[in-house]
């Protein structure tokens, strides 16, 4: 039976999923989803079947998840045991950075892989791991088609004013642009909105993807107009460990006054800032909500403040707003963050229904709210699986 494997490699995690592809004419059917966390540390593997039953939920011995390659090997063992009949004909990869050229998924070969390697410095928490996943999958499935699905692709058609920085023109030509990320998630949400609320999909929508990485995107008619992330996955909202928007003068200060080099600054901005840096406690929103210390409360308050600012900015960029969608781990699960983001937004026509918010219903705004507020669980994996199916169907 033909199957697609999807891989989404983060800095210390590997998400994987197995989909049955059938005759390539219908929707890929998910069979297994899994996550290996804390690769290189005290690793843990969780995997479940489509019906929600657990296949595995246990620590991994260090030698089985020392790096992404061994972690993938462990995931493949699990898949082989659970689905011995699965023939993997395609592997789909979330690749965070596609640069200026890629607005659609591509088939990976050695040359394409080399070009994507050049983009590693632009997304150091993701791109090197995404590409090591590709190399591991090429070795494990040499016959399968390998498809790269780019986080940047969804934004490639946003208007020039959102694509550029006010630097001398030559930098734009070199690729110093505002790319935008989380495109697989936005693509999924756009498609889901078209199914469940076509009138909203056709209108002006702000999507808040609030996970460990966080960004927001303004869409009209389901297409990206502007987003909070820019040249790298550092810009915009504060994140688990990333600073989000920062005056570039701070970077100059760190270099000239603190004597910090590029690697030290990258480490500070990517790994030691955001919720972790502000709280001094954790990058994890759930832990901060539970901790209730002053510093944890302030970290959450800053996160919420920046989401609200971005919401106002994107609404202005869209010329108004018809719907706000929350997704990502925080957006889907934090009743508190949703409530704080929406508090006192009556002036813009947004009113949250507290009981619906508490229950986490799909629509969490009141019936009288002019702006609909929705919670839609995102699914980057199905977007990748569809891309693999379409690529296979085209190749015949
Ligand atoms: N019930 C919850 N309440 C508050 N925050 C939550 C809850 N569940 C998950 N989160 C937060 O979601 C974030 C992880 O989001 P997720 O989208 O899963 O991350 P990733 O970007 O790694 O895929 C973490 O900060 C986590 O604490
Ligand atoms: C681009 C990005 O921030 O991704 P993630 O949410 O997986 O960290
Ligand atoms: Mg994420």
TrEMBL record:
Pathway: Metabolic intermediate biosynthesis; acetyl-CoA biosynthesis; acetyl-CoA from acetate: step 1/2
Taxonomic lineage from the root: Bacteria, Pseudomonadati, Pseudomonadota, Alphaproteobacteria, Rhodobacterales
Root EC class: transferase
GO biological process, alphabetically ordered: acetate metabolic process; acetyl-CoA biosynthetic process
Organism of origin: Rhodovulum bhavnagarense
Biological role: Catalyzes the formation of acetyl phosphate from acetate and ATP. Can also catalyze the reverse reaction.
Named cofactor requirement(s): Mg(2+); Mn(2+)
Family to which this protein belongs: Belongs to the acetokinase family.
Subunit-level organization: Homodimer.
Co-factor: note: Mg(2+). Can also accept Mn(2+).
Chief localization: cytoplasm
Residues annotated as site: Transition state stabilizer: 182, 242
InterPro entries: Ac/propionate_kinase (IPR004372), Aliphatic_acid_kin_short-chain (IPR000890), Aliphatic_acid_kinase_CS (IPR023865), ATPase_NBD (IPR043129)
Residues holding Mg(2+): 8, 380
Gene Ontology terms, MF aspect: acetate kinase activity; ATP binding; magnesium ion binding
Transmembrane domains' residue ranges: none
Active site, per annotation: 151 (proton donor/acceptor)
ATP-binding as UniProt keyword: yes
Protein name (record): Acetate kinase
Keywords: ATP-binding, Cytoplasm, Kinase, Magnesium, Metal-binding, Nucleotide-binding, Transferase
A GO cellular component annotation in the UniProt record: cytosol
Catalytic activity: acetate + ATP = acetyl phosphate + ADP
């Amino acid at each position: 039976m033909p199957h697609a494997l999807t891989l989404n490699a983060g800095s210390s995690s590997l998400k994987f999923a197995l989909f049955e592809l059938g005759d390539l004419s219908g929707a890929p059917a998910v069979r297994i989803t899994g996550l290996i966390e804390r690769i290189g540390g005290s690793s843990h593997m969780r995997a479940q079947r489509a019906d929600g039953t657990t296949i595995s939920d246990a620590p991994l011995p260090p030698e089985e998840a020392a790096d992404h390659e061994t972690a993938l090997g462990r995931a493949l063992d699990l898949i082989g045991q659970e689905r011995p009949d699965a023939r993997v004909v395609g592997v789909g990869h979330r690749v965070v950075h596609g640069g200026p050229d890629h607005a659609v998924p591509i088939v990976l070969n050695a040359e394409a892989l080399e070009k994507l390697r050049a983009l590693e410095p632009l997304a150091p928490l993701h791109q090197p791991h995404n590409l090591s996943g590709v190399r591991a999958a090429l070795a494990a499935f040499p016959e399968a088609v390998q498809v790269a699905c780019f986080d940047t692709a969804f934004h490639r058609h946003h208007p020039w004013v959102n694509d550029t920085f006010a630097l001398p023109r030559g930098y734009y030509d070199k690729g110093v642009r505002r790319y935008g990320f989380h495109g697989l998630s936005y693509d999924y949400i756009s498609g889901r909105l078209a199914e469940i609320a076509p009138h909203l999909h056709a209108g002006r929508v702000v999507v808040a993807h609030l996970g460990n990485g966080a960004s927001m995107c303004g869409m009209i008619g389901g297409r990206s107009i502007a987003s909070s992330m820019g040249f790298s996955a550092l810009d915009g909202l504060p994140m688990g460990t990333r600073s989000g928007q920062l005056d570039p003068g701070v970077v100059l200060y760190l270099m000239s006054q603190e004597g910090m080099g590029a690697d030290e600054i990258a480490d500070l901005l990517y790994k030691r800032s955001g919720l972790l840096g502000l709280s001094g406690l954790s990058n994890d929103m759930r832990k901060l909500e539970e901790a209730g210390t002053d510093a944890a409360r302030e970290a959450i308050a800053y996160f919420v403040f920046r989401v609200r600012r971005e919401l106002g900015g994107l609404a202005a960029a869209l010329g108004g707003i018809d719907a706000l969608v929350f997704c990502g781990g925080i957006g889907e699960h934090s009743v508190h963050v949703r409530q704080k983001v929406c508090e006192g937004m009556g002036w813009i026509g947004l009113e949250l229904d507290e009981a619906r918010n508490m229950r986490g219903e799909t629509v969490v705004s009141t019936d009288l709210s002019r702006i609909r507020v929705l919670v839609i669980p995102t699914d980057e994996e199905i977007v990748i699986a569809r891309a693999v199916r379409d690529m296979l169907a085209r190749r015949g």
